[in-house]
Amino acid sequence: MKKIFTLLVLSIALNTYAQTLKSPSEFLGYELGTEFSRHHEVVGYYKYLALVAPENVKLITYGKTNERRLLQLAYVSSAENLANLEEIRKEHLKNTTGTGTNDKAIVWLSYNVHGNESVSTEASMKTIYSLLTDKKEYLKNTIVIIDPCINPDGRDRYVNWYNQNKNTPNQVDPNSVEHHEGWLSGRSNHYMFDLNRDWAWLTQVESQQRLKIFNQWLPHVHVDFHEQGVDNPYYFAPAAEPYHEVITDFQREFQETIGRNHAKYFDAKGWFYFTKEVFDLLYPSYGDTYPMYNGSIGMTYEQGGSGRAGLGIITKNGDTLTLQERIDHHFTTGLSTVEVAARNTQRLNSEFKKFYQQKNFTYKDYVLNGDVDKIRALSSLLNKHEIAYHQGTNSTVKGFGYQTNRQTSLKSNENSLVVSTNQPKGTMVKVLFEPAAKLSDSLTYDITAWSLPYAYGLDAVASTNTVSKQNFMDQPITTKVTSNAYAHVTDWNSMYDARFLAELLQKGIKIRAAHHSFTLNGKSFERGSLIITKTDNEQVADFETTLQEVATKHYKSLEAVNTGFVDGGKDFGSSAVRMIKKPKVAVFNGKPSSTLQFGEVWHFFEQQLNYPVTILNEAYFKNIDLDAYDVLILPNGRYNSYLDETTMAELKDWVKAGGKLIAMGGALKSLTGSNGFGLKIKELEKETEATSPTPSHAIERERMKNAITGAIFKTRVDNSNPLAYGYGNSYFTLKLGTDSYDYLKQGNAVYLEKDATPVSGFAGTNAQKKLGNTLVFGNQNYGRGQVIYMVDNPLFRGFWENGKLFFANALFMVD
């Protein structure tokens, strides 16, 4: 009886709380929009709502960030819907197979993917409060899923910086320091990755954990809340061209429906906005396109502000833009979105079901051959997206060949990977695997090429016919270290091999690399093959046990040999079989460098290669004794003014003495000229000037002739160069700009030949002329050291898998 009475009292108390629900301002202790809320305060408010209104709010933790901040989702709906949440979810997912009878709309609102676009998290609190109070009618037939902060690490970085630097009261003068965020901005996550470019590639923990839940729901509508420049009016759907061709007429139409509803509210307030400009729907890894390709109505909303705006700032028009105004705008579009969805539940469900009906795509199956490690890496990505794949059979497949860029045939076998468009995720398969995305407009917001067979370095055919395939039977590699063997030998082809090597080096095991191919025991081993001898490791305790454990961990098959006398090639005692040094690596960071590329390098070492790296900041870099390091990496950036004559002389002396300098992207420019290392920028003959001036309205398109928007080019590879060990005689590079350099006198590991044209993606006519006979990756001897040039970025966004071995080669193979 006492227990029943206690539950009754608790029930009455919770109902009372629900009736007098605290607003964000009441809970936080300050008027919303007059301060920036830290992440733990936002988490606290959502926990409070879930506690006092459990019949309408269910809060889950779906993960943690690199800095251990919570990632949370709030499910908001009517009491009846929330009580049947799992049944609604399952019935909704049945629509992907055409059998569902769901009558609820699923709306997912994602806030603050860019940390210093900080208004949206504040707006999320106002939005959920309104849904629980004055807009509860929207919840009768709608499930609203709210992610209050996709990027807590970046957001707290910004909020903490702003609170430390703002005036009291805040200063609206744009010149004040509170409007000038530093080099390490809050936009990106811990590893300085742009999470709004990571939906498809899933390189970051935030993306990986979020997508698990996203795939459990596949919402009808998904909104990604952003901010843009201070002086821009609000942007909402419909989006700009180009639209990817897979986007349906209904998806286009419903964007328009939602946009017109927003416009109704903005017009009533006299607020300015724009649509159908700038933000297109092509690149598949955005928070609007990725949901689109999974059947949602995906949209980006952009409020003027970002990291410059602070709590208030004077715009170029002389108006003062406040945080409270920015909140109101995102609050309005958020509620408007839910309102439209609530009014259109039947159509959203019927069209979602249609989206998942089998489509008559040109290519029915994609068949991929290649190194087993690369197949394994791609399979891992497909698993995360819940994309089905199969094993090939012994057959000949005809279709479009990725290597040849024309119709060809490919021999399929049991090691081939077959990915079909005839599956629920078939649209996503087409988008990720198609050889070239169809462009309705060359003016795009991001890269225009990303095809996974190129990104993973696999030979592939896109077939217009359904090919023979079978259920995939993963055959685990069995690794057996043979006691007292003279040596164990293994190949060098992938990042699995690089991780294997990196871990062994850190465990004190000595490894040699073959710098010539050889044959032994009837098997062929290419340049870069790893040789681990018993004699080199006599002083290593538990050598064989350690080797066994590390090989198993990294799926490495080892060939035990009882002699160093090879059947063909160079014996193990030859100078062509050299010890791999355990390098001490440093990477530069700070204002001269790109935050994004520094982050890519940092993430590569800590999360992909698992090898230690020291970060040297610009503030004290010139006081560092570089002799403590074997390798120095200069990420993309502008170093010309930073690397003054004295610093450059010291850097050159360090290389001469045996140092290894790896320069990436824009960093190469600082190494040219009389004070550099001899690298030469490609010079073009001046063209005859235009006979008539370009009209103003055509200037932007005229500029596109000189641009490359993320296009894929086929390059030539000298795989006898240690920088290119593990590669064939060609490589598909993702080119992001027009910087071009002449061939080196020697050491051209990867290069473009004359008349280079993209196999996929957009490159302007003038831009293409600059690329003929130019360097992509190369290395140059300088004294006893090496300078390694990376014109293109092999680590771009962490997803160009086939480029990463070049970076590992630069660290371990080039000596």
Protein model, in words:
The protein has 815 residues and is of the alpha+beta class. It folds into four domains: 2-355, Aminopeptidase, CATH 3.40.630; 365-470, no CATH class; 487-579, no CATH class; 585-684 and 699-812, Rossmann fold (3-Layer(aba) Sandwich), CATH 3.40.50. It is 31% helix and 21% strand. Strands 27, 28, 29, 30, 31, 32, 33, 34, 35 and 36 form a ten-stranded mixed beta sheet that branches. The protein has a seven-stranded antiparallel beta sheet with strand order 16-15-18-13-17-14-19, covered by helices on one side. Strands 1-2-4-3-5-10 form a six-stranded mixed beta sheet. The radius of gyration is 29 Å and the shape is globular. The model is unreliable at 5-10 (pLDDT under 50).
Note poorly predicted spans.
Answer: 5-10
What's the tally of helices? 23
CATH architecture assignment of the largest domain: 3-Layer(aba) Sandwich
Q: Please tell me how large the radius of gyration is.
A: 29 Å
What are its keywords?
815 residues; seven-stranded antiparallel sheet; Aminopeptidase
Short structural description:
It is built from 23 helices and 36 strands. With 815 residues, the chain is an alpha+beta fold.
Secondary structure elements and pairings:
Blueprint (H helix, E strand, L loop, with lengths): L1 H18 L4 H5 L10 H14 L4 E8 L5 E7 L2 H5 L1 H9 L11 E6 L8 H14 L9 E6 L4 H14 L39 H13 L3 E8 L5 E2 L4 E4 L5 H21 L3 E2 L5 E2 L7 H4 L4 E8 L1 H4 L2 E3 L5 E3 H21 L1 H11 L9 E5 L2 H14 L4 E3 L2 E7 L4 E7 L4 E4 L5 H8 L18 H4 L3 E5 L5 E2 L16 E4 L4 H12 L5 E3 L3 E3 L2 E3 L4 E4 L9 H11 L5 E3 L15 E3 L5 E5 L5 H15 L4 E4 L13 E4 L10 H12 L3 E5 L34 H5 L7 E7 L12 E6 L12 E5 L5 E3 L4 H7 L2 E9 L2 E6 L13 H9 L3
